[in-house]
Amino acid sequence: MNISDILVRPIVTEKSLDEVKNDRYTFEVAKEATKDDVRKAVETVYDVKVLAVRTMINKGGMRRVGRKRLVVKESNWKKAIIQLAKGQKIAVFEIGVEK
């Protein structure tokens, strides 16, 4: 699996930005990615030291689409919470963080 395929996007929400104070960063990752894959990808792309990786599968919900309001199921997706070493930072998440 290619490193660019592992990290889909950073998740920037109020809750994830609140966790930045505890050196935890949240990413959407490929469903097939293992914890080791995620660890290597984050360390390579952002040049940081990863202490721990926690992953979870989020269930896709139901959504109404089209003029006839058909109900379709969104696909499941995988989320990873990364714990960095003290003093390490990822610049993408530093937008709304207050010191």
Overall description:
By secondary structure, the chain is α+β, with helices and mostly antiparallel strands. It has a single domain, classed as Alpha-Beta Plaits, CATH 3.30.70. The chain is 22% helix and 35% strand. The chain has 3 helices and 6 strands, in the order αβαβαββββ. The chain has helices at 3-6, 14-19, 35-46; strands at 7-10, 24-29, 50-58, 62-65, 70-73, 77-84. The strands form 2 sheets. A 4-stranded antiparallel β-sheet has the order 1-2-6-3. 13% of the residues are buried. The mean pLDDT is 91.
Average of pLDDT: 91
CATH topology: Alpha-Beta Plaits
Q: Which word captures the global form?
A: elongated
Share in β-strands: 35-45%
Using the CA coordinates, give the radius of gyration. 16 Å
Give, in order, the helices and strands. HEHEHEEEE
How many domains, as an integer?
1
**Spatial ordering of strands, largest sheet:** 1-2-6-3
The CATH architecture would be 2-Layer Sandwich
CATH homologous superfamily annotation: RRM (RNA recognition motif) domain
Number of strands: 6
Overall structural class, as computed from helix and strand content, comes to alpha+beta
How does the major sheet shape up? 4 strands, antiparallel
**N/C terminus separation:** 37 Å
Enumerate how many helices there are, as a single number.
3
Helix content: 10-25%
